[in-house]
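Chain A, query sequence.
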Amino acid sequence: MKRYSGLLLLFCVLLVSFACKKDPFDANSGSFTDKRDNHSYKWVKIGDQIWMAENMAYMPYICGPDAQCGIYVYDYQGTGSASVNYSAYGCLYNWKTALTICPEGWHLPSDAEWMKLELFLGMKIEDLNRTDIRGIGVNVGGKLKGTGTLHWIDPNTGATNESGFSGLPGGCFEINRFHSIGITGYFWSADAINLKVTCRFLSNANGLFARDFFEKTMGLSVRCVKN
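Chain A, predicted structure.
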């Protein structure tokens, strides 16, 4: 009888412990650690989605600008340590690499998931499928941009970061060269159409959140969304 009482007590303790274990993402914001390299990332809940609030920075290897191995750091030329831009802006990934770079439990957002974010921030439905400039009238880009000019080149127009997304202008890698850091933040989606991929970008000059199609070989920033 004592044996069964002990087992029952152990079961009750385990049950209470499990019930009291709090979901770490049951909040409006927080941080988590990528088990692969122990890098910590901030995250934020926007609507019913959970987004990373920093650029992806997982770097198991790194390419020089004359290589096509898929992971770049702005201005790193292939020798020595990674550029100082790494700590602020993370990495730039080609699309093939971006598809697999998110931590366990996260993924590269689809075009539809970006649209869901945009709708929540006030994008007009009729603008969702447009390419190029969108969202200026309702300042969707401004709501996504980190404020100030520490990482954005002046004027960083419209930046309020009211979403908590803290968008950064990590620039891009294109045809063996880097450009636009501090001016533009480019972000991949998971959806390709023929040889090009749907992406988004923010600008220091206005509150747009543009949608366009870029070559798969380019290096852009990655923001992951929770599964």
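Residues 25-226 form one domain. The chain has one domain: 25-226.
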